[in-house]
Amino acid sequence: MQKIVASLFVAVALMFSASTVFAASGASLFSSEGCIACHTINGEGGSVGPNLSHVGSKRSLSWIKTQIINPSAHFASGSSVTINGKSYMAIMPSHRHMPASQVNTLAEYLGSLK
């Protein structure tokens, strides 16, 4: 029984460590890719695009990935989009050439924002 408890403890510790590293790398990618210039997270960033502080509670992981790779799949480029009562011009650049691993990291990070 002690081995099972110890194994569970190690598994939880590893998951916590991985999620902490993952969140840090996703946040770093959000900054390095320039997303922070237009989008706000927890009071930091620009206001050209919508606030993403709670995007994970509003959008699925699949939706977020599509938005990163091909934003015009959701909003026609140049159109006016109203989100939470505020209007934005749909001008998000496509990141279709971003490596899948980075798309996944960024999407997982955004999806964790609840």
The name of the CATH architecture is Orthogonal Bundle
- Given helix and strand content, the structural type is mainly alpha
Number of domains: 1
The poorly predicted ranges are 16-20
Percent of sequence in beta strands: 5-15%
According to CATH, what is the class?
Mainly Alpha
Task: Provide the gyration radius in Å.
Answer: 17 Å
Q: Would you tell me the overall average pLDDT?
A: 86
Strand numbers in spatial order across the main sheet: 1-2
User: By CATH's scheme, which homologous superfamily applies?
Assistant: Cytochrome c-like domain
Tell me the overall shape.
globular
Order of helices and strands: HEEHEEH
The count of strands amounts to 4
Distance between the termini: 36 Å
How is the main sheet built? Answer: 2 strands, antiparallel
CATH topology: Cytochrome Bc1 Complex, Chain D, domain 2
Helix coverage percent of residues?
40-55%
Treating each run of at least 4 consecutive H or I residues as one helix, how many helices?
3
